[in-house]
Design brief:
- Keywords: 2Fe-2S, Iron, Iron-sulfur, Metal-binding.
- Its cofactor is [2Fe-2S] cluster.
- One of its GO terms (cellular component) is cytosol.
- Belongs to the adrenodoxin/putidaredoxin family.
- GO terms for molecular function: 2 iron, 2 sulfur cluster binding; electron transfer activity; metal ion binding.
- This protein is of the alpha+beta class.
- It has one domain: Ubiquitin-like (UB roll) (Roll), CATH 3.10.20.
- The chain is built from two helices and five strands; from the N terminus they run ββαβαββ.
- It has a five-stranded mixed β-sheet with strand order 2-1-5-3-4.
- A hairpin with a 5-residue loop joins β1 and β2.
- The radius of gyration is 12 Å and the shape is globular.
- The termini are far apart.
- Bound molecules: FE2/S2 (inorganic) cluster.
- FE2/S2 (inorganic) cluster binds next to loops.
Length: 106
């Protein structure tokens, strides 16, 4: 599946993801800056914050309780479409997913 990351400065990067990887891991694998992922996907660092494109909101699943708590502490503003990208698992159904990167992660 391919995922497009849109940077805060509107630069877009489309990368190919492996089925089952998280969106955070995919970004790190391809050197997409703008996602830090300090905790390696353990849902404890909140440095993998993304804004899910509105067209995809219904497809990426729901925010878990731990994730919801962590999202309260993200460095950039939390919006209704905020997610932690380590909690978004890539599947074929998410081919074409668009994620926007916040201004900063820390
Ligand atoms: Fe740490 Fe997502 S990588 S919370």
């Amino acid at each position: 599946p391919s995922i497009t990351f849109i940077h805060h400065d509107t630069r877009a990067e489309t990368v190919s993801a492996n089925d089952g990887d998280s969106a955070m891991y995919t970004a790190l694998l391809h050197g997409v800056d703008g996602i830090t992922g300090e905790c390696g996907g353990g849902a404890v660092c909140a440095t993998c914050h993304v804004y899910v494109d509105d067209n995809w909101l219904g497809k990426v699943g729901t925010v878990g309780a731990d994730e919801d708590e962590l999202l309260e502490g993200v460095a950039s503003e939390r919006l209704p479409n905020s997610r932690l990208s380590c909690q978004i698992k890539i599947t074929e159904a998410l081919d074409g997913l668009v994620l926007r990167l916040p201004e900063r992660q820390v």
